[in-house]
Amino acid sequence: MLRRNILFSALFLIVFPSLGRADWIWTPETGKFINPQWEVKSTPADQLEFAQSFRDQGNCKKAIVEYKKLLNTYPRSKEAPEAEFYTGQCLEKMDKPYEAYKAYQMVIDKYPFSNRSAQIVTLEYNIANHLLENKGRSKWAQAVMGSDQRVIEILNTVVKDAPYGKYAALSEYKIGLYYKERGDYQNARDEFEKTMDDYPNSEWAQAAKFQIAMADSSRASDAQHEQKVSSIALDEFKQFVKTHPDSELDPEAKKQMALLRNKEAKNDFIIAQFYQKQRQLEAARIYYKEVVDHYPDTPWAFKALAILKTIGG
User: Fold this and answer.
1) Are 9 and 64 within one domain?
2) I need a surface site. Which of 3, 55, 125, 218 has the fewest CB within 10 A?
């Protein structure tokens, strides 16, 4: 019998020479070759400790392999959420933020009673915040910031997992800022309104109210048909200044009001010029007077007044 096993082993190594390395061992008990590196430890605790040894050495790639073995073999063990959590930790070290987020979220989705939940919400928020603050400057951020808007997914997850946590209102507010910076003013406005509605007592509600006016101000253009949007933004800034006179955002709100008033005056002035060129002088006078009477603090008022002196009115 022993002779037959030896002959079989020799034949096996001839047919599969790549398996002849020292990491393969013939086990008479099983009657086959095994590779200890592919084997899972006899308990989940031992497997977790084995995986952690690679992480401690800085070999995150190997550690993740061992964590996955634990998750596949002992999915219901108390060590399983720890393996998933440390997989996320390793992925962060490997500059794979979105993959790290997915691993962290797996802990909450599969193991909702894990004591890591609060910590994970913080880690996920930090990933999203890092991406927002470093977009365009960090390769780490560029890997995630794209048309799929994964950073929005992460922030929405933070709100979903901890709707009453300390990062919920801030996350919704930052989603609004993200859309605003990308020029998507309608979605930005919607997110700022959600921040105000969902978290009216939060410190971010006041900032969201200001940002709604800013979003509407950005939407307003010099075109005549956009003047309504400009007027809405101006009213929103007026309301903000009235209700938050001591806010640190008050000076910026007043600055934006001045810019919007100047924009509205210019729009009326352009309309007046149009009627003047069409020789509809009565209509032109009405709009020039509108500029003089309602926007006396703008440079357009002086221009309108000078023209009125020449055409009468």
Assistant:
1) no
2) 3
pTM: 0.68
Boundaries of domain holding 92: 40-162
Q: Which two tokens stand for residue 289?
A: 């007077």
Residue type, 65: V
In sequence order, what are the beta bridge partners of 27? Answer: 32
The region of weakest confidence among 8-22, 32-46, 51-65, 252-266 is 8-22
In which residue are the tokens 């994970």 written?
120
Quick one: 196 exposed, middle or buried, by C-beta within 10 A (0-12, 13-18, 19+)? buried
Q: What is the pLDDT of residues 199-235, one digit of tens each?
A: 999 989 999 999 999 888 877 653 444 666 677 777 8
- Are the C-beta atoms of residues 79 and 44 closer than 8 Å to each other? yes
At 120, the amino acid letter reads I
Contact between residue 63 and residue 55 where contact means Cβ atoms under 8 Å apart: yes
Count the Cβ atoms, other than its own, within 10 Å of residue 39.
11
Q: Could you tell me if residue 251 is inside a domain?
A: no
DSSP 92-128: HHTT-HHHHHHHHHHHHHH-TT-TTHHHHHHHHHHHH
What is the per-residue pLDDT for 225?
A: 46
* Total domains in the fold of the chain: 2
